[in-house]
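Let us practice reading a record.
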Amino acid sequence: MSRPFFPLLAIGTVVSHHPERHAVYVMLRSGQMPGNPIPVAIDGPADAVRVSYGELPSKGTWGLIAFPNNDPRNGVWVCSYYSQNQDAITNGPTDAFTSYKTEWSGYWEHRDSAGNDTKVYPDGTRITCSATGEAPTTYRHVVDGNNLRQRTEFAQAERVSVTPPPFILDVAHASGTLLQVDSTGNVNVTGNANATLTLNFGATTLVINSDGDMVVTAGSTTFTIDKNGQIALDAGANPVNITASTVAMMVASALSVSANGGAVSQAAVLAAALVSWLTSHTHTGVNGTTSTPNQSLTTADIASTTVTMSG
């Protein structure tokens, strides 16, 4: 029994999918319908462990189909093409070198001839590397009431009928360090057992090690908080200004301060603050006279005191 004749090259449209085989069922313009699914050609490696492929063409997509030896069992979907005026092409009259991809999920990416690159996910998360820092305006073509092809903006709302909740952005390094932005926008950085987080801005450096110790260095001044909450300030040759908040911090933790290379004990700094207050702070007594107070210090009293130590 002879097989029906199929042309070497034919034009057809997708009628259904066979995802497991990365194939489509088609109907040719002649009305013929091969019984076997037609594999979609893969532009890249295609062996038992390596492959690179995109989405299957959607139902109604027209394409070029090859039938080697005119055998319908050998059919291959070569490529898709537009056979009508309505399309998703974003290019304008001068955009000859734009690379553009838009997917069923609502994800899309765009890179123009200058290298400005944008990737947008269905939830609206965007990664852009460009001269402006903004996502480009994309377009598609529709047919108006006069059957004329018109270029119109393709908004994100048209790509996704229902916007999903914010995705979780997760970058996991093989060392165990993890950077994550959760669905509420919180940023979490988790280091591995030997990792160090370092931020450098101008002359200031912030370093956090894997034990949780934090060191801030600005010029010749270093401020340290260790994993147990111990605080140390080394001002080098710089003046150290002591205010109420500093006194409260000293009382709450073991704070050591050094200036000009010499350590200043917590008791000495606190005593200096109290002496300054006693010698300079006055108030109006009950008899209307102004005098140095002879009473316990209050938080408000200490808050008004500033001691500058240098040397």
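A brief commentary: Confidence is low (pLDDT under 50) at residues 283-297, 305-311.
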